[in-house]
What does this fold into?
Amino acid sequence: MKFQSFLSFFLFSVLLATFASADSSLTSRMKARLPDVLTAKNSGAIGEGLNGLLSARDKATDSDKKLVADENKDRLTIFKMLAKKTGGEPSDVAKKFAKGIAAKAKKGHWFKNSSGSWVSK
It folds into this structure.
């Protein structure tokens, strides 16, 4: 179990390192969006999926939905970059990212569980 935790931490760290060295416009967009993403998460309008992507919840506005689409587009780019760098699959990178996000999430943030239901941390 300790090895799996270490592996998850390592992959998440590598993802962040790749993120930091990614195209500057990509990182700039994601950094600029982060306060809005956190606000939408805090309000319960959006949540995280097991696939490393954001999802709009029932009370999401059109603005929230655009935020989700924009963030997910950039996250997918990051996942592909890291997978290429490590020789892995983007879906595996995304799952590790999702675990890292869930571990660091605030109480009250929403996540989809393995059955697709929303649960609050």
